[in-house]
């Protein structure tokens, strides 16, 4: 943090309480300039044509409320730490756990500090965004649920609370808190363990994304291209919302999560930016040694910094009970659990960086690579790989993260709680932009990431791990990222049409890697049933298309061969391979079957289970994997079972990323003989900086979530047919496909 920013932050801290009070006051009605309008196209995508930037932000809030009002307001209720008050305990007390998490990490208090630190101009944009949401709620109360309307009116403080909970305390911090099953209450006044409510992991799920940037030297048309392809839950607060925002000098197209006023995935006539979830440890855990009512640190006994918060929990009869959260903070951060009685403190990097939203805005509105770099170097965004391309032909991969600088230890050392009694293990700053892994305009002609560590971002132009601290990121492989590298490297030049087709690939890299040896093993050592299974796999197309026979059988076998790890860094994940993963050889490692007899026996077991679960060894993939979007639960991130919305029930394609499928669709637990999507390809855009620009898009689960919205499932037939939508960016094109116009 530079001196100017530090001074701003210190002043902001002093003003935080006053700022919080002011922000909670009712805002004056916002008046847009005449001529501002929203055009909704036939896919339900809103196109904002505003007369000023504040008017644009007002309309951005308005369209989020119109398309996702209930979901939007649920998200803000959660980030206030009042979810249990508004919505009750939730499924498996999810809302209670949410509120404990918010107050333990003092999100509202810090959000007030962040809000006071905002530059006046940008704060005005945030105020306009909130005014748009409130204005929609006031004009269309009938469109919102009774539960959602409890949250209105919003204030600008809500935006900073939402940002923190979603990014700093779900993505950065929460996965670090699942390490110990022994978590216990920090103090007696806390009635239950404090654990993060956010756990995106399952044996088949890999949160994150795919992202590609292709330079002119690799492009068949000599124009840079970029692929945006995030993977998160199909529903709930992780939903992406596609939109166009225009104002004088501004023309942004892209998406972000509902409730965020800044577009994380964006392109303009000049540049394009996408993100993927990266492997970084911006959240560190410390074992605290208690003594004399305090804790030991560098040989001295320090006192806890204490705070106490309460929140309400709505009861079935409409009454409320109150729960208290006692916060005990060390120099590292708050105590978030106890392991066998030992307090565990959480240090989260980047909590002194309040300008994430502003940085995203300024990155997206940069006019050239130099302006973009000026913004990205601020490192106000605490995590996510950032992949960039522009009309001038520049591309960049950046391992963007707030990484605490440490003097010792590798990734494995910091994966678990470390000694909190010494300052030798406490970071004093975060790594700078210059110290982070990155590659700009590489000889390979492309950069890419599919959630693997940064080292092969432009393979064979490697980023060398030895040039960076050992704790910065591990070394492991993902078959999905290997599939990406194969598709990028197999063609000397890539056309825009080829880019569109490669994105839709359902081929399993794992099958290509291992299937020939599995067939040999079955031939030599297999039972009669294993040989029958091998005959099916021999004729299988190695894809997860709806008609693919053998895909279910291979999926069932693969779960035995590498399960339960979803990445290849776990020690037992590679136990059955002859040659382990080598990051310099991503297309050929890991490989080989170490024990062919065991692999053949696994195939026999898999064949039996496939028949039991799916009816036959050669049941087509799409008979079981179905494209449905079901009703959503009360604020949970994943969809729940229920009648298929709008009657959409289609054979699915795409599949699990840990099989090396680039078109990720994580199908959930099987019920009534089928599985339906809970995660994967959500918002996708592929673009080329030609003149005029080429851009195609898809939002798999539709661009709205409000009950009764016709666009909640309307893009699933395109998904089934592996088709794209044209992106309309000019007023003329939008007018040709107009569904509704709103004038202000």
Structural account:
With 744 residues, the chain is α+β, with helices and mostly antiparallel strands. Among the domains are: 208-276 and 353-405 and 430-503, Aminohydrolase, N-terminal nucleophile (Ntn) domain (Glutamine Phosphoribosylpyrophosphate, subunit 1, domain 1); 509-542 and 549-619, Penicillin amidase (Acylase) alpha subunit, N-terminal domain (Orthogonal Bundle), CATH 1.10.1400. 31% of the residues lie in helices and 21% in strands. It contains 20 helices and 31 strands. The strands form seven sheets. Strands 20-18-17-8-7-6-5-2-1-31 form a ten-stranded mixed sheet. Strands 3, 4, 21, 26, 27, 28, 29 and 30 form an eight-stranded antiparallel sheet that branches. A four-stranded mixed sheet has the order 15-16-9-19, covered by helices on one side. Helix 1 (3-23) packs across helix 5 (107-117) and helix 14 packs antiparallel against helix 15. The longest helix is centred in the first third of the chain and has 27 residues, at 53-79. The two termini are 41 Å apart. 55% of the residues are buried.
Task: Describe the structure using short key phrases.
744 residues; Glutamine Phosphoribosylpyrophosphate, subunit 1, domain 1; Penicillin amidase (Acylase) alpha subunit, N-terminal domain; ten-stranded mixed beta sheet; 31% helix; disordered N terminus
């Amino acid at each position: 943090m530079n001196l100017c920013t530090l001074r701003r932050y210190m002043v902001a801290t002093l003003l935080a309480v006053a700022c919080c009070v002011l922000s909670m006051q009712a805002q004056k009605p916002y008046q847009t300039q005449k001529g501002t309008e929203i055009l909704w196209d036939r896919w339900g995508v809103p196109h904002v044509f505003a007369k000023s930037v504040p008017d644009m932000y007002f309309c951005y809030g308005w369209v989020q409320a119109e398309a996702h009002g209930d979901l939007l307001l649920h998200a803000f209720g959660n980030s206030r730490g009042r979810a249990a008050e508004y919505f009750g305990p939730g499924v498996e007390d999810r809302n209670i756990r949410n509120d404990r998490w918010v107050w333990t990490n003092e999100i509202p208090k810090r959000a007030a500090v962040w809000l006071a630190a905002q530059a006046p101009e940008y704060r005005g944009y945030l105020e306009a965004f909130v005014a748009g949401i409130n204005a929609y709620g006031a004009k269309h109360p009938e469109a919102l649920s009774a539960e959602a309307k409890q949250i209105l009116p919003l204030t600008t403080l809500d935006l900073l609370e939402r940002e923190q909970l979603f990014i700093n305390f779900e993505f950065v911090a929460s996965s670090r808190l699942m390490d110990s099953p022994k978590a216990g209450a920090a103090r007696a006044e806390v009635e239950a363990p404090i654990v993060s409510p956010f756990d995106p992991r399952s044996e088949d799920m890999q949160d994150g994304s795919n992202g590609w940037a292709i330079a002119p030297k690799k492009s068949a048309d000599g124009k840079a291209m970029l692929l945006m392809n995030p993977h998160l839950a199909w529903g709930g607060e992780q939903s992406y919302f596609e939109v166009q925002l225009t104002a004088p000098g501004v023309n942004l197209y892209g998406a972000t999560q509902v409730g965020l006023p800044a577009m994380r995935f964006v392109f303009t006539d000049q540049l394009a930016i996408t993100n993927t979830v990266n492997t970084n440890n911006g959240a560190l855990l410390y074992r605290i040694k208690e003594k004399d009512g305090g804790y030991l640190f560098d040989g001295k006994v320090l006192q806890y910094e204490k705070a106490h918060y309460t929140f309400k929990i709505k009861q079935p009869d409409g009454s409320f009970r109150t729960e208290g959260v006692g916060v005990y903070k060390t120099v590292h951060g708050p105590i978030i659990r106890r392991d066998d009685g030992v307090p565990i403190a959480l240090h989260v990097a980047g909590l002194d960086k309040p300008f994430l939203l502003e940085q995203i805005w300024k990155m997206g509105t940069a006019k050239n690579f130099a302006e973009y770099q000026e913004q990205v170097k601020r490192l106000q965004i605490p995590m996510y790989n950032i992949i960039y391309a522009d009309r001038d032909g520049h591309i960049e991969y950046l391992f963007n993260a707030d990484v605490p600088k440490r003097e010792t230890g590798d990734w494995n050392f910091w994966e678990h709680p470390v000694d909190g009694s010494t300052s030798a293990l406490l970071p004093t700053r975060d790594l700078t932009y210059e110290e982070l892994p990155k590659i700009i305009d590489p000889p390979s002609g492309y950069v890419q990431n599919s959630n693997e560590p940064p080292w092969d971002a432009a393979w064979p132009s490697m980023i060398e791990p030895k040039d960076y601290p050992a704790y910065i990121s591990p070394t492991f492989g993902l078959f999905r990222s290997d599939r990406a590298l194969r598709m990028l490297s197999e063609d000397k030049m890539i056309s825009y049409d080829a880019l569109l087709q490669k994105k839709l690939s359902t081929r399993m890299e794992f099958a290509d890697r291992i299937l020939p040896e599995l067939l040999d093993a079955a031939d030599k050592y297999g039972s009669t049933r294993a040989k029958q299974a091998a005959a099916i796999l021999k004729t299988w197309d190695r894809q997860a298309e709806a008609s693919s026979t053998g895909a279910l059988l291979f999926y069932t076998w693969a779960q035995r061969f590498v399960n339960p790890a979803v990445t290849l860094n776990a020690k037992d994940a590679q136990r059955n391979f002859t040659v382990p993963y080598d990051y310099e050889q991503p297309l050929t490692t890991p490989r080989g079957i170490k024990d062919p007899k065991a692999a053949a026996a696994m195939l026999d077991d898999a064949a039996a289970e496939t028949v039991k679960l799916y009816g036959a060894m050669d049941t087509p993939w799409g008979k079981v994997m179905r494209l449905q979007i079901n009703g959503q639960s009360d604020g949970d991130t994943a969809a729940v079972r229920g009648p298929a919305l709008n009657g959409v029930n289609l054979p699915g394609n795409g599949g699990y990323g840990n099989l090396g499928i680039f078109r990720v669709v994580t199908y959930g637990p099987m019920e009534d003989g089928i599985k339906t999507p809970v995660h994967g390809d959500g918002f996708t855009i592929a673009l080329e900086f030609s003149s005029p620009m080429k851009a195609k898009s898809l939002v798999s689960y539709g661009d709205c979530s409000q009950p009764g919205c016709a666009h909640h499932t309307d893009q699933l037939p395109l998904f089934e047919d592996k088709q794209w939508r044209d992106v309309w960016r000019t007023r003329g094109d939008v007018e040709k496909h107009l569904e509704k116009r709103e004038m202000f």
